[in-house]
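Sharing a chain and its predicted structure for anyone who wants a worked example. Both blocks are below, sequence first, tokens second.
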Amino acid sequence: MTADADRTFERLHRAIADEVGAIIFTVSMLDRKAGVSRRAYTSHPDDYPVTGTKPMDENAWSAQVIDGRRTFVANTTEEFAPLFFDHALINALGCQSAVNIPVVAGGDVVGTVNLLDVEGHYTPARVARAEALVAAAAAGLAAALGTGQRD
């Protein structure tokens, strides 16, 4: 990633941390050719390094976030464990709730903004605020993820 990309991610990270809360904050970009999601930014480089990837499985999460372009919210481990292979690590880091907000450019989801916090943290008001912050940063996020904003 470029210095501009890092600044874009860091600004959004600070805004979400201040206004919504997130113990762990990451941004991932989709690599459809390789069939993986690649981490582009992380608040926890030891546990979730930027070199990390996750397989892009076809499941309820991908149907909602990638195909449907809708935010995924789970406020308990039980809600996300069937969909997140790393749920044990997430719990070990003190997180039991998750939010994944799609980043859309040119009509396609090009990445996600991912938030983790304590159980029950992501109320509808907090999710709406996080979505608004991501929407406000959409052009910068798309550019940082190497896509450019085409919408």
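Comments welcome. Residues 3-144 form a domain with the Beta-Lactamase fold (CATH 3.30.450.40).
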